[in-house]
Design brief:
There is one protein chain. The chain has one domain. The protein is mainly α. The chain is globular, with a radius of gyration of 19 Å. Helices cover 75% and strands 0% of the residues. The longest helix has 28 residues, at 105-132. It is built from 13 helices and no strands. This is Transport permease protein. GO terms for molecular function: ABC-type transporter activity. One of its GO terms (biological process) is lipopolysaccharide transport. The chain crosses the membrane at residues 35-56, 76-97, 118-135, 141-162, 174-193, 228-249.
């Protein structure tokens, strides 16, 4: 682990340059550019607000549904965008891997930085909706920093695992979007964690995103501390998946160039 950190520091310039290139390339020929990062979740929020608050009439923990939904949607998008992109992180850079000797984990870190920047941009839409509904500021909002770090730890674990496995088993890349789509409905994004009955809540906790999404709502909307049981499980799961992902990636990356 220490050696990996050292190598990543040595490749810092390469990682940042690659991240900047990817961000610029994605929005280069778009008239609105990076504004789409804000517009997309905002429009999605408006559509689902009509569907689930007006027609399905799902309870929203006593706050306006747009607030309730967007507070969970943005961190969910951060998670699913990064995880969905993971399988192509290595296989999408075949030429670079074959032509240049560098620490392959740099590519995963680069993508993580790119998705993090996109996430920060998307938070502008949350600030706008908070101002519109006059959400009261609270010290608990500062807890989004450790929540972001925890979520990043979880995401990195999945990204290392999926990006390395997909080099050898391409089915990973085909299955990931299907799994993340199903995962969306099994996560408390459009509905409240508290809406689930006690007998089923213990199963929902096994989803590592449950603790994170519920925690975001607690600290941002209710000025409360997160529930420790689902969050504790998420912490434990994140540590395990990070270690597994790190070990698998470093074991498999030695033959990436040969397989690709």
């Amino acid at each position: 682990m220490v050696e990996s950190i050292k190598q990543l520091r040595e490749h810092k310039g390469f990682i940042l340059a690659l991240a900047q290139r990817e961000l610029n390339a994605k929005y280069k020929q778009s008239f609105l550019g990076k504004l789409w990062i804000v517009i997309q979740p905002f429009m999605f929020m408006l559509i689902l607000t009509v569907v689930f608050s007006k027609f399905a009439r799902l309870p929203s923990e006593g706050v306006p549904y747009p607030l309730f939904f967007l507070t969970a949607l943005l961190p969910w998008n951060f998670f699913t965008n990064a995880v969905s992109a993971a399988p192509s992180v290595i296989v999408g850079q075949t030429g670079l891997i074959k032509q240049r000797a560098f620490y392959r984990l740099s590519l995963v870190v680069n993508r993580m930085i790119t998705e993090s920047i996109n996430y920060f941009y998307s938070l502008i839409s949350l600030v706008i909706i908070f101002i519109y509904f006059q959400v009261t500021l609270s010290w608990t909002m500062l807890l989004i920093v450790p929540l972001f770090l925890l979520q990043s730890f979880l995401i990195m674990g999945f990204m290392m695992l999926l990006s390395s496995l997909n080099v050898y088993v391409r089915d990973i890349g085909l299955a990931t979007p299907i799994v993340t789509r199903l995962w969306f409905y099994l996560s408390p994004v459009i509905y409240s964690y508290e809406l689930i009955g006690e007998e089923y809540r213990k199963w929902l906790i096994l989803n590592p995103m449950t603790g994170i999404l519920d925690a975001y709502r607690k600290v941002l909307l209710h000025q409360q501390m997160p529930e420790w049981i689902p969050l504790a499980y998420t912490v434990g799961f994140s540590i395990v998946i990070f270690i597994i992902g790190f070990i698998v990636f470093n074991k498999l990356e030695k033959k990436f160039a040969d397989v690709l």
